[in-house]
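[agent] plan:
  1. take the single chain provided in the ticket
  2. run structure prediction with default settings
  3. attach structure tokens to the ticket
  4. add a short note for the reviewer (M.T.)
[agent] executing step 1
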Amino acid sequence: MKRFICLILAIAALSPLFAQSQSAEEVRAKVREDWNMASGLDGVLDWSARPGTPAPKGYEATYISHYGRHGSRYAYTAKAYTVLLDMLREGSASGNLTPYGSELYASVESFWKYVEYRVGDLTELGWQQHVQIAKTMVESFPKAFGKGSRVDACSSASTRSIMSMAACVASLSREAPKADIYAHQGKLDIQATRPNERYNPFAYKGPETIFPYPESSEEFFLRRFPQYKEVLGRMFKDPDKALGRRVPFDVFFNLYMFVAGMNSLREDERVDVSGIFTPEEYATLWETDNYERFREYLPYRITCSSIVDDIISKADTRLSSGERGADLRFGHDHVMMALLMIMDIDGFNRYPANPDDLITVFQSFRSPKATNMQFVFYTPKKCNKKGEVLVKVLHNGEEVKLGSLAPVDGPYYRWADAKAYLESRVALFANKK
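[agent] step 2 finished; step 3 output follows
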């Protein structure tokens, strides 16, 4: 069990793990040394204990507002498996495989038979991640889950998100048996879970998003990873023949996902991918994938602003009624990345002039499988009834900053200040009229 539990956009200042002064080369060096970090969005959450700042005197945590990505899964698209498999099949039929390629082909063929009907499904690790997240919430903020508390959970329509929610609420029901817990999924939950879905009748509109860099993702890949044929040469005698009419960028986009996705599987399920990339190549591929994700996720700041509004409205309802508990939302990595930008968490909504420096501020490994954000609300204890409501923000268990907003004590903000700040951020991206 511990093996499952213990496996882990930014723009400018980062979490305590990545100081604002880090250069691109320093980031690359760290990524080279950490395979999980180099796996980017396919890395797995490290939910080990994080040091926390004690609550201000006279306050206690009574309400949590949460957004979480689904847990570890099999690849979300079959192409992550079949692009490599088809090339290996063709190579075998034409005698174009190297000895390593032949060995890999046998493994991938067998692997495909195992995962063909599991594409997109939550893995065992994905379930355990949300079990642990729930357990940690109750242990860290017990007053929010006591007698009379209410937990409301909603999910996107994705099955893996629904299953992640199920794991979390099942764990909460064991850890907090006195809490009233309700979980649901429906079209009316879309603005709180996955508002950037293609067919969202309630979607916010906003100004056109201008991508700040001239290079396409394919151009960036070819410039940063010109050695792609060397990688193919380990599997194929003739890399050009293996590629055929395929686009190298597309091949390596899927090959990177194939390798990174092994993190989410049990050891007995995995293909041995250690011979495909060197650590330096894998880190560079993360950089090219990171660039593509930035391009893809930047416009999501518009539609995903509805989640910020949902956080505000539900918090105000809870606080005005004095009801304890939690509102939990379950969705996806691209939504989390958009939220980090919208709220400017740790300076996440800034980007450098040089695209090669993007990795110093926008880092997809900050949204691993089961990534989560929690607004933890602190209300005055009975002996301190006149105090204002305070809030702190946790991202993957770490205390983070709301842009340049000044806290009143350590990581703690007045909710009135934080609310005004969040409303001003939404106004930058969304036109709700």
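[agent] step 4 note for reviewer: Residues 279-297 form the longest helix (19 residues).
[agent] ticket updated
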